[in-house]
Amino acid sequence: MTPDSGAAGFWSYTHRDDEIEEGRIRRLATKIANEFEAITAEELHVFLDKNDIKWGDEWRARIDSALTGSTLFIPVITPRFFKSDECRREVLTFSGHAASLGLDELLLPILYINVPGIGKGEQSDDVMALIAKRQYVDWTQLRLEDENSPTYRQAVHSLAVRLVEILERTAEVDPPPIARIEDPESDDEPGMLEMMADAEAALPRWNETMVEFAQTIAVIGEAVSDANAEMELSDARGAGFAGRLRATHKLAERIKPSAERLSELGEQYSAELVKVDPGVLGIIRQVESEGPEATEAEQAKEFFETVRDFARSGRKNMEAYQEFSDTLQGLSGMSKSMRPLMGKMRGAAQQVVDGQAVIDEWERRIDEVTS
Questions:
Q1: Is 62 in contact with 68 (CB distance < 8 Å)?
Q2: Which of 57, 135, 69, 146 is nearest to 101 (CA)?
Q3: What pTM did the predictor assign?
Q4: What's the CA angle centered on 166, arms 163 and 170, to 5 degrees?
């Protein structure tokens, strides 16, 4: 599919947030598009409904055509946004493609409802970290204004002007040269073979991380099973809630080191994948636009197949991670001693899901290029 000509804005938000706001998020998108057209006399195509086939088709077409320098991605940030796997995947996908082309500005978040900690220090959440690095627009107070008030209308105008300025700047940007993954400070510009070798060398390291992740989950699962058995015995003895509480505290102490290690692994895995994402997408784009030289054709084929194998392996592991998430859900009603550990484990599981989304996008682009 060939993307529509002209500028386009893809809005990413949760439908529940829009329902709570009684449609104000969708109306904001329309108002900004109308103001954009008033300023430029050109239409800004707005894509709002992710359930619409055209949203997905146009999204993929524009990404696959190197974004054309005229595609804006506007995530509407709320606490609920970070709980949506779909919204998280869209941020990661667009961010990687934009970064590989030197077009980071095309990702323009709107902070619609305040998210605690989003602008303070280092973020352990990979998607939140990506958002925090951008010059997001703060709409947390404006959302409380009357939509027809001068303050609200001026803010809509200012945001539309900013979109115009971004598109004008990015229209002139040339894709950056591909940088080394392992040695970004090197003065020697690598060729495609060096880039593939660096990325290929990283894959086993990520696989080792995932093996340890699975082993750690198994340790936690065993501890949970033992705790459940202890609670059953306690109930049989008539120990009541006091007996359950003792078993829960014991479980918390037992799994604390594993939960902390799980958190470390999740952060390490997702952060590294997000870091190398633009480089891998750059390799794929280079193969697509130029085609590998005769001496590199076989190496490119081997590299792509290695990525495909890694993607397939990751998807198989997702079933185990889903079972783990279900186990965490069952633990959610336990004592407060479990709550910090629950947060760490849930965060780690989410980062693995995010990482798989990055790898799946590599596989999708490889299939597009080689089909």
A1: yes
A2: 69
A3: 0.80
A4: 140
